[in-house]
Amino acid sequence: MIRVMTFNLRTAEARDGENAWANRRDLALERIHSFAPDLLGLEEVHDAEQSADVRAALPGYTWYGVRRGGNGPAPLEMTPALVRSEAFEVLEDRVFWLSPTPDVPGSTGWGAAYARTAVQLRLRHRVSGQELYWIHTHLDYLPLAVRGMSHLLREVIDDLPLPIPLMLTGDFNAGKRSLVYRTLLGRATPRRLWDALRLAQPDGRGEGTFHAFGRLPRAQAIDWILVSEGLRVLEAGIDRTARDGRFPSDHFPVWAILETP
Q1: Average pLDDT value over all residues in the chain
Q2: Beta strand spans in 23-87 (E)
Q3: CB-CB neighbours of 22 under 10 Å
Q4: Phi, psi of 140 (to 5 degrees)
Q5: What is the 3-state secondary structure (H, E, C) of 159-217?
Q6: How many CB atoms lie within 10 A of CB 246?
């Protein structure tokens, strides 16, 4: 079994008052430890004010990811993929930018507000020997940029060898009725993806993850775990834990427990 989580931590650089990182750090890290993922995708990790806390709390994980850079705001943010070393061996790793020039660090395109990165890993499960591709990312929030980035990701996915299962995780800044969602599912492509949460909970209720520290009347379903054929979803859900009115982030983490045949 493979335990997977994607979690937007909300950057420590933000001026969030009572919701500042220092006030919710312990709860955020507790939720990660509670699920104990083998593969953990994080978003909005500030490399000067936040990454040290995460690294110290998760010593059994290998960290893949770099600062997004670029000329825009918040160049120190990262979208790292963390691999529990006892569970997986990393065979290949790549970081690329979601732009028309993906191998140029800090590059942007399609009018994006921020430089955005993706981490692409080829993994081997240490117990079963099963190989797996994992792509983890965080898309921009401007509509044209989100669409351009989703088409780039679909091209990357389609270029990877079909026999090896693939998982795509992250914050996609788009809902599940969007063109972005349909593009990434790729229903008419050889490498179709499925939404792990919807496979586990077909009624589609309660899928919202972004809640703005409880201020939204209805949370938005923008954080996903997508899986290809060859990955069976045993369970999936959203961790909505809050304590004493405090949330671990402005997003709820999404988790899934997968199995390979």
Answers
A1: 96
A2: 39-43, 45-46, 61-64, 77-78, 81-84
A3: 10
A4: -70, 170
A5: HCCCCCCEEEEEECCCCCCCHHHHHHHCCCCCCCEEEHHHHHCCCCCCCCCECCCCCCC
A6: 14
Number of folded domains that form the chain: 1
Question: Residue 62: how many CA atoms within 13 Å on its side-chain side?
Answer: 13
Question: Tell me, what's the pLDDT at 153?
Answer: 98
Determine the residue type at 129. Answer: G
Q: What is the pLDDT of residues 31-56, one digit of tens each?
A: 999 999 999 999 999 998 899 999 99
For 82-96, b where at least 16 C-beta lie within 10 A, e where not — what string? bbbeebbeeeeeebb
Task: Specify the CATH number for the domain of residue 133.
Answer: 3.60.10.10
pLDDT 10s digits, 170-204:
999 999 999 999 999 999 999 999 999 999 998 87
Contact call for residues 45 and 9 (beta carbons, < 8 A):
yes
Domain hosting 137: range is 2-259
Q: Determine which helix (DSSP H) or strand (DSSP E) holds 124, and give its type and residue range.
A: strand 117-125
Strand partners, 95: 119
What is the pLDDT averaged over residues 222-250?
Answer: 97
- Going by the DSSP 8-state scheme, the letter that residue 220 receives in this structure is B
Tokens of 200: 């586990």
DSSP-based three-state secondary structure for 53: helix
Q: How far is CA 211 from the centre of its chain?
A: 17
Residues in the chain, overall count: 261
Coil, helix or strand at residue 26 = helix
Question: Strand 61-64 to strand 81-84: parallel, antiparallel, or no bridges (unpaired)?
Answer: antiparallel
CA pair distance 69, 53, nearest whole angstrom: 21
